[in-house]
Amino acid sequence: MEKENFIDLKLGPNWIEEKDGTFFAIFSANATKVEIVLYSKENQKYPKEVIEIKDKKGNIWYIFISGVKPGDLYCYKVHGAYKPEEGLRFNPNKVLIDPYAKAIAGIIPLKWDDSLFDYKIGPNNEFLINELPNDEFIPKCVVINPYFQWEDDEFLKNRKRWKKEIIYETHVKGFSQLMEELPNEVRGKYAALSSNKVISYLKDLGITAIELMPVHAFIDDKILVEKGLRNYWGYNPINYFSPEARYSSSGYYGEQVYEFKKMVNELHKEGIAVILDVVYNHTGEGNHLGPFLSFKGIDNKSYYLLNPKDQRYYVDYTGVGNTLNTSSDAVIQMILDSLRYWVKEMHVDGFRFDLAPVLARNYETINMEHALIKAIEKDPVLENIKLIAEPWDLGPNGYQLGKFPSNWYEWNGKYRDLIRRFWRGESLPYFEIANLILGSRDLFVHKNPLASINYITCHDGFTLEDLVSYDRKHNEANCFDNKDGADENYSFNFGVEGPTSDEEILKKREKQKRNLIITLMISQGTPMILGGDELSRTQRGNNNAFCQDNEISWYSWVLDERKKKFFEFMRSIINFRKNSRIFEEPNFDVTWLKEDGSVVDELSWRIPTNFVAFIIKNEEKFLIILNSGSNRKFKLSEGKWRILFSSTENVKEGEEIEIEERSSVIFQKISD
After folding, report:
1. What is the percentage of the chain residues whose pLDDT exceeds 90?
2. 20 catalytic, yes or no?
3. Any residues with CB less than 8 A from the CB of 196 and at least 6 apart, and which?
């Protein structure tokens, strides 16, 4: 093969069947020499062969190796200066994971060893080079066969950036680990999510899109492993192209790629979109004391945002030790290549970007005209793909809610916080609640109201069941002295006199859960529910279960009568929302009402209230009442109305109705 025929080959390993070999290409701007290290599956402690890469164009090192085929294992050695004070941490004693590997094998979880660090472990040694070889402990990269027989053409043909979506945020393992109807070998795996049992469940519930917590290959933090815990959530990536192998039921020598594709294929065939939670803001290599696994050793200075005053150290806008340098051409290219890969090769439908302001950062400055943001916006492969920002990070000016470009949708943390405050009984200005219900148009001024991803609960915080059950967090199982997780007081205060029995407490909690979900489902925007909330899932008061790979986090499918009733309520109201056009339309008639049934005037619009009522209509007409205060009477307008949903069983139909304290009702007009 002539060199010029593969100079422009994309980065990573690319198996060419007809040439009986694989092309490899890797970026490094500051390396002086690059070697590829081949391993056998039978002996991954020692290299089978080490081959120097002698061809280079620009900053791309490339080689074609005959006989390397799918299932074969490799890593890189990258030579150069070890000068941490200049941002250079090359260490040719170490083998490294390819940032563009399409599959990663090896020990799961990672077996921690001193050789996995580039510096000598010990006091005051953090900048002395560590010469211990790490072959035995580093996970190996796998050459894959990319071919797959897709059957989702019809779904992809009709895929739009946004339609009427009901998003279900879930965890690959947690969802099915305790699902006894599934075979043991597929529980907690990609294969479970592609099963008829799971897909039928999601369709019956009314879900149109699942948002999977991170599935990019990740590692378990050393501090967690030492405590006997795991990085369950997966926000610790070490590669942006490889599906995490621990969720594979079929193997991790490329089988995980096939199994992931099959999952997407089966979900698409049944009309369910797949959104990935992606973590392009940091990697699992941590700060200057973190492990040395991939990016640090390939080109530390290009991949990471370094402290300009002392390049031994990393800038941390993410809370986990490092921040990717999204102003670097190499990082921009890697993120774009990763997004395109998951869309074109893995057929995913969208991405939720963790700590998304990092994508627009240049140190303390955030600019939505940033090269990476513009490149994502203009990329033709991403044209009809769902782009969702978590619009905050931990750096200066990090709260960017409502500021992302028009084709980005955003997690609306303000919606979550104010709706929770309202249902705790706090009086808020009428217009604030109204704005939230109308898709936060004050925030998303130049966007479709669907751009507001509305939610009450998500993975980060209490489940819905725990939200109404605990007045403080109980994160003791995390082994951080209950100091991790948010400290907000979540108490849902049940009234001055308070409940007098366990039965009353449960009734009031169930009512509050219904209040919150009714509000979510009648609000304009795109609703997202936390997976398992429909099952009344509890984490036993843990509001930061990131390290709990056990029954604290896994969904329980054993439901008592109380939980069955709530599930039926959730299923009914989700499908009501899904099948009602009115909540999706940007324009409809809405009339806001006071407690006496009269129209809200300018003065009332600004007065704090714990009662909101409104009539919305197009071809249908609904009256919605949200009362987070005390009992009150409300006079219905003329005509016949029927109750569709209520958080309480005590509301009766009639011209004048009694609205119970802390309750919500949806009426539909059936005749004038």
Report:
1. 84
2. no
3. none
How would you list the strands of the sheet with 589-593, edge to edge?
Answer: 589-593, 611-617, 621-627, 663-671, 640-646
Answer whether 0.85 is exceeded by the pTM.
yes
Which residue type sits at 238? I
pLDDT above 70: percentage of residues in the chain: 96
Give the CATH architecture of domain 589-671: Sandwich (2.60)
Rounded-to-integer distance, Cα 492 and Cα 508, Å: 10
Residue found by looking up tokens 């005209």 in the block: 369
Using alpha carbons, select from 83, 87, 25, 82 the residue that is nearest to residue 59: 25
- Closest among 492, 528, 467, 511 to 646, alpha carbons compared: 511
CB 302 within 8 A of CB 30: yes
Structure tokens, 540 = 């036993």
Residue pair 394/355 in contact by the 8 Å Cβ criterion: yes
pLDDT at 1: 36
CA 439, CA 453: separation in Å to the nearest integer?
9
| Separation CA 333–CA 295 (nearest Å) | 14
Residue 584: pLDDT band with limits 50, 70, 90: confident
Residue with tokens 């967090």: 473
User: CA-CA distances (angstroms) from residue 518 to 1, 546, 623?
Assistant: 63, 28, 13
Sequence spans of domains, the chain: 589-671
d(CA 194, CA 23): 32
CA proximity to 290, closest of 238, 213, 331: 238
Confidence label for 3 from pLDDT (cuts 50, 70 and 90): very low
What mean pLDDT comes out for the span 336-357?
Answer: 98
Neighbours of 297 (CB within 10 A): 28
Q: What angle do CA 329, 330, 334 make, to 5 degrees?
A: 115
Q: Is 324 helix (H, G, I), strand (E, B) or coil?
A: strand
Active site residue 354: yes
Distances (CA, A) of 46 to 66, 99, 135, 309, 494: 21, 21, 6, 40, 64
Return the axis-axis angle of helices 413-423 and 502-522, rounded to nearest 10°.
Answer: 140
Residue of 354, 465, 466, 584 marked catalytic: 354
Give the model's confidence band at 637: pLDDT under 50 very low, under 70 low, under 90 confident, else very high: confident
Residue 47's nearest CA partner among 36, 39, 55 is: 39
Q: What is the CA radius of gyration of the chain?
A: 27
Average pLDDT over residues 655-663: 87
What is the C-alpha separation between 230 and 222, in angstroms, rounded?
9
Structure tokens at 438: 């109308």
Distance CA 481, CA 276 (A): 32
Does residue 619 carry a pLDDT above 80?
Answer: no
* Number of H-type helices and E-type strands within the chain: 15, 29
Question: How wide is the angle at C-alpha 416 spanned by C-alphas 390 and 621, nearest 5°?
Answer: 115
Q: Which of 51, 28, 49, 27 has its CA nearest to residue 38?
A: 49
Catalytic residue, candidates 165, 390, 466, 533: 390
- For residue 517, which of 576, 472, 592, 564 has the smallest C-alpha distance? 576
Question: Are the CB atoms for 504 and 581 separated by under 8 Å?
Answer: no
CA–CA dist 138, 438 (Å, integer)? 51
